[in-house]
Amino acid sequence: MIAGEIRELAAAIKQLGHHITIETAATVAPGGIACDLASLSPKLRNSAPGERLPAAWRKRHEQTRWQPDVVRAWLRQYAFQLKFVVATAVDVDEIESLVRELGEPIPPAKILLMPEGTTPAALQSRASWLSELCKARGYRYAPRLHIELYGNRRGT
Cα angle at 21 between 138 and 5, to 5 degrees? Predict the structure, then answer.
């Protein structure tokens, strides 16, 4: 478990009557955590860390970024959405392959695609083709509003 007391916190928040959405890369099984919506954001090949990080870290990232059994556990226990950051059409091919690998009935409307980018200009350069692809395939387009409003900063 990544955050040791997360289950107790989520249970207390749920007891207060609040809606709980948990966003996760889906590399750790849910284990019965209180959750109304699981927002699963598995990492694609495009998320591989660059040479700036040690080789051991990059290797661990590649080995753990896609955990189909863990994703299935989340899908089977909670209402869900799948969110992916997309840089190119190749990423969409990868997403569709990963979804098929799950072998679960996933309606296209539960798949959200977000353009990759750290500046409004980079996001806009992908927005037109990605939003059209979403319409054509029934996926949901998700803008990265935090970058548009605040830039590429932590804590936004």
Answer: 145
Rounded to whole angstroms, how far apart are CA atoms 13 and 9?
6
> Using an 8 Å Cβ cutoff, are 118 and 154 in contact?
no
The H-assigned helical ranges of the chain are 6-15, 55-64, 68-77, 89-102, 120-137, 145-150
Question: Model's pTM, two decimal places?
Answer: 0.89
Q: Are strands 37-40 and 111-115 parallel, antiparallel or unpaired?
A: unpaired
Residue range(s) defining the domain that contains residue 120: 6-150
Q: What is residue 156's three-state secondary structure?
A: coil
Residue pair 79/36 in contact (Cβ under 8 Å)? The answer is yes
Token pair recorded at residue 19: 């809606």
Q: What is the pLDDT of residues 100-145, one digit of tens each?
A: 999 999 999 999 999 999 888 999 999 999 999 999 999 999 998 8
Which residue in the block uniquely carries the two structure tokens 């059409």? 89
* 105 within some domain: yes
Q: Distance (Å, rounded) from C-alpha 12 to C-alpha 28?
A: 21
- Whether 156 is covered by a domain: the verdict is no
Number of domains into which the chain is organized: 1
